[in-house]
Design the sequence.
């Protein structure tokens, strides 16, 4: 009996999704990267803001822990002791002298700066080092640890995406819902407006909107404002689909029945019409998520988006175009690898879910 | 069935309405920027040592017509904008059209070449990816096109700069060699331009290719399932002849419709790529106008011109499509 059990819609989708190998691999990547973002504070050894900067290791190269050298093997990874000097002999550039005899060992679950996780104040961090600091991705121009900043940036990007998405959903449901339910002239006006917004290239539009931000706003206010405009400008596609769907659904008998029994307009839209559209909304949301993150990154990169101390990949790359950085400090670019992996994982997973959710898809 | 002339007339009317709506949105945005042109110009003068009073600001506002109601200013702006006159830049005090048109021409040139590049890559590779039985080829094409979607263009530009500095010792930025900077257009200058412009064209084109490739693939797969293809197969048509004469021919006409959308995408990336590669075109001018000087007149004019170009392309592609495929006429009119 169990072999012929009837599968629910979601079980069918799950079955098809599991057959898609690349989407499955991407899902693991995605979960890994998202947890990096969520547990950023615990995983990063130092504070990603200027408070956590290492004044003695400015523009420092990545320090990769070693397990063995000519002096023997060690289970616990270690770094060498280094000393940085600059004087007239070195032409006033920082020069590092490595003392290979003295090892500094990496420690785990060390006490560090305090942070707040789910309302609990904690001060344990995954790893640290005996004396001094460890920077596995190097440091930037003010000594901030690039590894810690990368993790925090993933978190911020996800937060912008989620917030923007929520706003986009509200906006699309409102505009598309009204246009589709009422039809007629309401639809004509709202659709003309939607089409007009869709024609304007979004990044120039974001730029124009972001240029209003007064200088005295705090970094957190900027964060909310940027997420809001990204969500608001992105509404047309979903809103249009919703409208088309509602226009065809609203003449169905069950809507008429609800109307006749005196149900209010909004209740009909949200109780009866929307549920028929939920799966599409979920898929669209997943597919569009990376583009929200991309928009934020581009804006921050040109200096119109987020600003220090709220940091994102865009903020981190602001200084990376300088020829000094290009020639001497290439580790500034390490965060981009994580970022590209994050977006790619989202694209693959979204794609896999879309294919799995489409019942008419023929396996090629 | 509507005649083609009726269709063109209606479609033209719709384009004008959209353009008017957009001009209204753009103008309102310009108005929302804190501070107006008069204040900005006079504060600039004040910083160079002149004493400015409130009367001066009021007088300047009157001279610029900023004391008139919003709707009147909007209608003047629109009427002038349709004639190609965008007034004066707030800060630079030069005529926007003379400043902008040559730079916008360069931008448009770069974008259109990028678009052509994108389609000439996307069509063959999209067809290959839709029909190949080679799983590795298909998934690597998919990977590259997703990478094009996932990498923000400025990252591609940064990466190219990073590698070119490490390996060639040159950042490959700018549009002209120094000796051609102010020179009038000539064959030599044009060749010099091409030798610099391939990089932005490549970067802008890559992202657009990724998207167009997915569209081509989806269209070809859709057509491949249809009965007339099966019928052709049954008649014994095979191989390349089957592919090119049956599904591909029909799959590619809807593609014309996506040109406007792809141009939108390319315009989208233009300002940021321009700023990284130090290209002096309309894109970097927009960024300058918004970030450095808050020059709302100039910024509004650039966004308006970009959008007007997209609307124009959409208009042309719709007309072309309706000539190739008359079935689309009714759908396009009813849809709006």
Sequence:
């Amino acid at each position: 009996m169990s072999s012929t059990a009837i599968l629910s819609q979601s079980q069918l989708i799950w079955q098809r999704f599991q057959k898609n190998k690349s989407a499955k691999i991407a899902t693991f990547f995605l979960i890994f990267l998202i947890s990096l973002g969520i547990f950023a504070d615990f995983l990063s050894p130092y504070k990603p803001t200027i408070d956590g900067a290492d004044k003695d290791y400015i523009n420092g190269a990545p320090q990769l822990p070693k397990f063995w050298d000519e002096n023997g093997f060690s289970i616990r990874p270690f770094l060498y002791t280094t000393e940085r000097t600059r004087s007239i002999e070195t032409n006033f550039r920082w020069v590092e002298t490595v003392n290979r005899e003295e090892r500094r060992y990496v420690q785990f679950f060390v006490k560090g700066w305090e942070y707040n996780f789910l309302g609990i104040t904690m001060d344990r961090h995954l790893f640290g080092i005996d004396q001094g600091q460890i920077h596995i991705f190097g440091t930037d121009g003010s000594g901030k640890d690039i590894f810690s900043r990368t993790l925090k940036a993933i978190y911020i990007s996800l937060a912008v995406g989620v917030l923007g998405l929520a706003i986009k959903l509200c906006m699309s449901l409102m505009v598309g819902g009204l246009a589709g339910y009422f039809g007629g002239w309401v639809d004509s006006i709202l659709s003309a407006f939607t089409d007009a917004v869709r024609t304007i290239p979004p990044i120039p539009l974001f730029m124009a909107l972001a240029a209003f931000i007064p200088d005295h706003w705090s970094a957190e206010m900027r964060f909310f404002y940027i997420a809001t405009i990204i969500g608001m400008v992105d509404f047309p596609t979903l809103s249009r689909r919703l409208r088309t769907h509602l226009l065809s659904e609203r003449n169905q008998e069950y809507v008429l029945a609800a109307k006749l029994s005196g149900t209010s307009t909004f209740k009909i839209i949200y109780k009866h019409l929307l549920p028929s559209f939920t799966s599409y909304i979920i898929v669209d949301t997943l597919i569009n998520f990376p583009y929200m993150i991309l928009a934020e990154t581009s804006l921050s990169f040109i200096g119109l988006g987020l600003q220090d101390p709220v940091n994102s990949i865009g903020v981190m790359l602001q200084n990376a175009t300088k020829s000094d950085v290009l020639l001497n400090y290439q580790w500034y670019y390490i965060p981009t690898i994580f970022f590209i992996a994050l977006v790619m994982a989202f694209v693959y997973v979204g794609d896999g879910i879309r294919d799995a959710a489409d019942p008419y898809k023929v396996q090629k | 069935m509507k005649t083609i002339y009726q269709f063109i007339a209606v479609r033209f009317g719709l384009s004008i309405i959209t353009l008017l709506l957009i001009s209204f949105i753009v103008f309102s945005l310009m108005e929302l920027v804190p501070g107006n042109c008069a204040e900005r110009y006079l504060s600039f003068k004040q910083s160079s040592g002149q004493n400015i009073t409130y009367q001066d600001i009021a007088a300047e506002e009157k001279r610029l017509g900023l004391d008139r109601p919003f709707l009147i200013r909007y209608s003047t702006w629109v009427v002038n904008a349709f004639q190609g006159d965008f007034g004066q830049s707030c800060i630079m005090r030069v005529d926007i059209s003379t400043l902008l048109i040559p730079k916008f021409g360069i931008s448009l040139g770069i974008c259109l070449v990028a678009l052509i590049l994108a389609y000439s890559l996307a069509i063959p590779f999209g067809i290959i990816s839709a029909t190949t039985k080679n799983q590795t080829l298909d998934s690597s094409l998919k990977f590259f096109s997703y990478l094009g979607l996932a990498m923000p263009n400025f990252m591609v530009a940064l990466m190219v700069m990073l590698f070119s500095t490490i390996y060639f010792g040159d950042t490959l930025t700018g549009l002209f060699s120094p000796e051609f900077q102010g020179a009038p257009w000539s064959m030599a200058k044009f060749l010099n331009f091409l030798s610099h412009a391939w990089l932005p064209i490549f970067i802008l084109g890559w992202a657009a290719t990724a998207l167009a490739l997915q569209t081509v693939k989806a269209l070809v797969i859709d057509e491949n399932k249809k009965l007339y293809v099966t019928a052709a197969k049954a008649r014994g048509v095979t191989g390349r002849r089957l592919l090119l004469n049956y599904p591909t021919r029909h799959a590619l006409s809807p593609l014309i419709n996506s040109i406007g959308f792809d141009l939108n995408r390319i315009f989208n990336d233009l300002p940021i790529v321009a700023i990284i590669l130090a290209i002096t075109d309309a894109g970097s001018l927009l960024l300058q106008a918004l970030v450095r000087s808050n020059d709302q007149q100039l910024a509004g004019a650039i966004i308006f011109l970009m959008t007007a170009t997209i609307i124009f392309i959409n208009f042309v592609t719709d007309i072309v499509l309706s000539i190739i495929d008359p079935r689309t006429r009714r759908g396009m009119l009813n849809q709006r």
Q: What stands out?
A: Residues 187-224 of chain B form the longest helix (38 residues). The radius of gyration of chain B is 24 Å.
